[in-house]
Amino acid sequence: MRVVHVASEVFPFSRSGGLGDVLGALPAQQARLGAQVTVVSPWYADITQAVREVWRGPLEVPGSVPLTDVRVGAFTEGGVQFLFVGLDAFDRPGLYFPDDVWRFTQFGRAVLPALEQVGVVPDVLHGHDWQAGLVVARARLAGLRAVFSVHNLQYQGRWNLMDGVGWTGLPDGVFTAEGLEFHGDVNLMKAGLVFASQVTTVSPTYAQEITTPEYGEGLDGLLIRLTHEGRLSGILNGLDQERWDPRTDADITPFGQLAGKAACGAALRAEFGLDDAPILATVSRLAEQKGMDLLIAALPELTRAWNVVVLGGGDPRLEAGLREWDAHPRVAFAQGMNEPLAHRIYAGADAFAMPSRFEPCGLSQMIAMRYGTLPVVRETGGLVDTVPHEVGFRFAGATPEALADACAAARLTFDDHAEWAARAQEAMSLDFSWDGPTREYLGLYARVLSGPLRPLVGLERA
Q1: Same domain, 152 and 192
Q2: Is 88:69 a contact under the CB 8 Å cutoff?
Q3: At residue 357, does pLDDT exceed 70?
Q4: Would residue 212 be called left, alpha or beta, if left means φ above 0 and alpha means ψ between -120 and 50 degrees?
Q5: What is the helix (H) or strand (E) element at residue 74, kind and residue range?
Q6: Residue 226 covered by a domain
Q7: HEC profile for 70-121?
Q8: Are 305 and 376 part of one and the same domain?
Q9: pLDDT number for residue 16
Q10: pLDDT in tens, 392-408
Q11: pTM of this structure
Q12: Which residues bind ADP-alpha-D-glucose (predicted)?
């Protein structure tokens, strides 16, 4: 089976969060199980690996902006072929910018003809999030079968309809309520949802949640229809268990048994000058979605019983709020993303807070449990699907009080050393490998390939 993944980021070449992690792990596991896998992503200026240019030239594709100098670079690792599409729009440091809808529209126009130039013909094209929505639409209009994964429905790639029609190069017939039009805008997330043969989300609970007005981001009606048509499902993300393995982790004092974790806790205390209280940590993008404002508001209560360590960056207001607390003897804030420090935090903390307002899947809670660190999580999305009641501590309300109460319950349990140790041992034994999810995806692809190409209902003018 020839599978082509299209995504805006892929670890270790480019990464801002969980999407990059998924694209760094899932394709490699698919290749191990016998698929022929290619990953296509933008050729960012920050990519430092020895990518080999394999094609360069203009591409004649519809659209108001000519694609005159397109570069395709190749890199093979772990049985996966990585192709990077170079465009002027991506020749700047960093991944994401305010003009991303325009940038990824150019990327979306370039992907299929670039694949043709280098001789890659997919059986199934698998697009990830709104940045690949246009590629999915163009694939379906070209007669290819496509799967589309929603990693975060909140970000949709919307732009003014008048501009977007010309940018995409798609026929006028797709810019209707049945197609890409959304409240007077072009919506590239909707493009993926409408044109894919199958749509997946990254956890079963999130697949249910997004069919409701609370979580559907205005697309819940369409998602309900996809559910009724049997085209929407949730496949839980896995975890790269080689990258996140406390037994072999070079960034910590490795440990395989819970007793070895104590050295990591002592090292983390020494690094941040913390006292003997247990450590509650989080490693997160600083955003309201992640509930980081709830964590800050709960700090007066949390610091009565916990040391609190936060690693992350994002919303300047949340960063400023954490900096104000950084002088507190029981609070340590490290701004930005620092992977070696993240490993030390996962290994050295006792508990891990994730008060997310919504969480499509989440990887941090899986990593924390793998390192014997018990999660305190809000009951939403993938946190419901991955944190058993007998291991972690779950709470319902998206409020500082609900978070503080759950952390208080965790603190009481911490004092029962036998109970805490039993929970931590159970956490470390959980299987979050990619093997099961990978087989689910390959089965989904097989069903897509064995069925008829879905008709363009309501899009006949395309």
Answers
A1: yes
A2: yes
A3: yes
A4: beta
A5: strand 67-77
A6: yes
A7: EEEEEEEECCEEEEEEECHHHCCCCCCCCCHHHHHHHHHHHHHHHHHHCCCC
A8: yes
A9: 86
A10: 999 999 999 999 999 99
A11: 0.93
A12: 15
Q: Are residues 446 and 328 in the same domain?
A: no
Q: Tokens 């899932």 sit at which residue?
A: 26
The CATH number covering residue 193 comes to 3.40.50.2000
Please write the tens of the pLDDT for every residue from 86-95: 999 999 999 9
Same structural domain for residues 206 and 275?
no
Q: With CA atoms as reference, report the closest residue to 448 among 136, 131, 210.
A: 136
- DSSP letters for 142-204: TT-EEEEEES-TT---EEEHHHHHHHH---GGGSSTTTTEETTEEEHHHHHHHH-SEEEESSH
Report residue 462's pLDDT band, with 50, 70 and 90 as the boundaries.
Answer: very low
Give the residue numbers spanning the domain of 377.
258-429
**Whether the Cβ atoms of residue 342 and residue 366 lie closer than 8 Å to each other:** no
User: 61 vs 108, 109, 121, 151, CA distance in Å?
Assistant: 11, 7, 18, 28
d(CA 366, CA 238): 9
| Per-residue model confidence (pLDDT) at position 232 | 98
Same domain for 230 and 89 = yes
Question: Omega before 113 cis (within 30°)?
Answer: no
The fraction of the chain above a pLDDT of 90, given in percent, is 88
Q: Is 96 within the bounds of a domain? A: yes
DSSP 239: -
Confidence at residue 456, expressed as pLDDT on a 0 to 100 scale: 73
* Total number of residues shown for the chain: 462
Q: Are residues 18 and 148 in the same domain?
A: yes
In contact, 311 and 345? CB cutoff 8 Å: yes
Based on the fold, state whether residues 215 and 326 are members of the same structural domain: no
Kindly give, in sequence order, each residue whose CB lies less than 8 Å from that of residue 422, ignoring residues fewer than 6 positions away: none
Say if residue 461's pLDDT is above 60.
Answer: no
For residues 272 and 250, what is the distance between their CA atoms, to the nearest angstrom? Answer: 20
Taking only the tens place, the pLDDT of each residue in 56-113 is 999 988 888 889 999 999 999 999 999 999 999 999 999 999 999 999 999 999 999 9
Q: Is residue 172 part of a domain?
A: yes
Domain count, the chain: 2
CA distance 462 to 458: 9
Asked if the structure places residue 459 within a domain, the reply is: no
15 belongs to an annotated ligand binding site: yes
Distance of CA 387 to the CA centre of its chain: 18
